[in-house]
């Protein structure tokens, strides 16, 4: 398993790195089976230290947790507890999907763009430019998952929306959290 431990304007010592690898490794070993990569980032927000952890599992799922405390070790412990609780909560589902899936999840490359908001300059003049301004461009991946795995992935990542390739028919689908707390699923298959 690869660990990437860093700090945003904070010096991370060898003792903290070793502590993170040991504690996070034990937590992941209990629940996740075969994690592939963990990214731990420490930062400071006012008087508190913040620890953000992202763990990529071999099943293609990604788990995220965040903890904050006045002490940097306490911030990591809070984050680790949240990760432990998350993985414990989904342990049965992770194991069930792991048995069904013999290999890792297939990933497709995709572009991800951040667009600047358009200003209403020249409104009513007829010469408005409808081309959005691209602020940032990054590479992203689209996993090939079942709908249940997609919902689980979205919940583990604390994301409001997830775009995925449906394993049943290879079409692009979307799951999202609705305002009423339920999960929405968009499956734009064309019917003949």
Automatic annotation (TrEMBL):
Keywords: Cytoplasm, Translation regulation. InterPro entries: HPF/YfiA_ribosome-assoc, HPF_long/plastid, RHF-like, RHF/RaiA, Ribosom_S30AE_C, Ribosom_S30AE_C_sf. GO terms for biological process: negative regulation of translational elongation. Gene3D superfamilies: Ribosome hibernation promotion factor-like, Sigma 54 modulation/S30EA ribosomal protein, C-terminal domain. It comes from the Bacteria. Residues 132-184 form the Sigma 54 modulation/S30EA ribosomal protein C-terminal domain. One of its GO terms (cellular component) is cytosolic small ribosomal subunit. It is found in: Cytoplasm. GO terms for molecular function: ribosomal small subunit binding. CDD domains: RaiA. Belongs to the HPF/YfiA ribosome-associated protein family. Long HPF subfamily. Required for dimerization of active 70S ribosomes into 100S ribosomes in stationary phase; 100S ribosomes are translationally inactive and sometimes present during exponential growth. Interacts with 100S ribosomes. HAMAP family: HPF. This is Ribosome hibernation promoting factor. It comes from Wenxinia marina DSM 24838.
């Amino acid at each position: 398993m690869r660990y990437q431990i860093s700090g945003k304007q904070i010096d991370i010592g060898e003792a903290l790195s070793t502590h993170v690898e040991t504690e996070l490794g034990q937590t992941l070993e209990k629940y996740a089976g075969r994690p592939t990569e963990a990214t731990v980032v420490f930062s400071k927000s006012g008087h508190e230290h913040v620890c953000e952890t992202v763990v990529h599992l071999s099943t293609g799922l990604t788990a995220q947790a965040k903890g904050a405390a006045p002490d940097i070790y306490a911030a990591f412990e809070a984050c680790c507890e949240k990760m432990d609780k998350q993985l414990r909560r989904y342990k049965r589902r992770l194991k069930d999907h792991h048995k069904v899936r013999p290999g890792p999840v297939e990933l497709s490359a995709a572009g991800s763009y951040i667009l600047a908001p358009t200003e209403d300059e020249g409104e009513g003049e007829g010469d408005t430019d409808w081309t959005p301004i691209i602020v940032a461009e990054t590479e992203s991946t689209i996993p090939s998952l079942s709908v249940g795995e997609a919902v689980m992935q979205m919940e583990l990542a604390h994301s409001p929306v997830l775009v995925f390739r449906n394993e049943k028919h290879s079409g692009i689908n979307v799951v999202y959290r609705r305002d009423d707390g339920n999960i929405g699923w968009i499956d734009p298959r064309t019917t003949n």
